[in-house]
Amino acid sequence: MPEFPTSRHRLSVRDLSCERDGRRLFAGLSFELAAGGALQLLGANGAGKTTLLRTLIGSAGDFGGEILWNGRPLPRALPALRESLLYIGHQAGVRRGLTPLENLSWYGAAEDDALWALEQVDLFGFEDSLCQQLSAGQNRRVALARLYLPDAAPLWILDEPLAALDVAGVAGLEARMADHIDRGGSILFTSHQPLALAQLQRLNLSDCAAIPGEIGAGGDSVFS
Ligand SMILES: Nc1ncnc2c1ncn2[C@@H]1O[C@H](COP(=O)(O)OP(=O)(O)OP(=O)(O)O)[C@@H](O)[C@H]1O
After folding, report:
1. Measuring from atom 11 of ligand 1, which residue has the nearest CA?
2. What are phi and psi of 67, to 5 degrees?
3. ipTM above 0.90 for this complex
């Protein structure tokens, strides 16, 4: 697995606000996520966690405030952000009419790499089964196998990656996330469950609060 040089990427959110159907989901949201950082988004059902993640990757509607990738504002910087992004959404992007191996091939993985990745998520022996015949947790594992492909991007944005995982699956994902952070990657994820990651920062969207300081190893900016 490659190293991601530290201080090379940075996602900045400044005074972000978002409304849907005339209802304010959150406002005054500011944080920075730099190389080597991890941020867990918390919040009640409907607080706007998925909407925030989709806004950050340019897949949601209007927003107020600023989103910057390496100091350049979206939407202009969106192509550069997407080049550095691995996004796994709530629906996980698994095509249920395909096999796990075919799903990873669809994402451009070579067969050897895909087989190795599937083994890492304990799907050895299921690589040629149709995903529609797999369990919910196994389908989540197919999605998470993308995190083990050799060209995994430095910025991971993961919506409910722990959903449907068993205890061993959660432990495996924690280890993979820790390794990614150690190598200078960064992770923004939602989860209702606690995760044992060193230096993990948490942000509760229900509070619409700002994070005091920077997440990651790349600098010394402070937002409030
Ligand atoms: N395109 C849209 N049009 C109208 N309302 C929307 C739209 N997208 C999201 N919403 C509303 O915004 C609110 C926040 O939804 P979102 O999925 O972001 O919440 P969440 O915090 O991820 O919730 P959960 O924990 O249940 O997954 C919900 O009430 C949802 O119905």
Report:
1. 20
2. -125, 125
3. yes
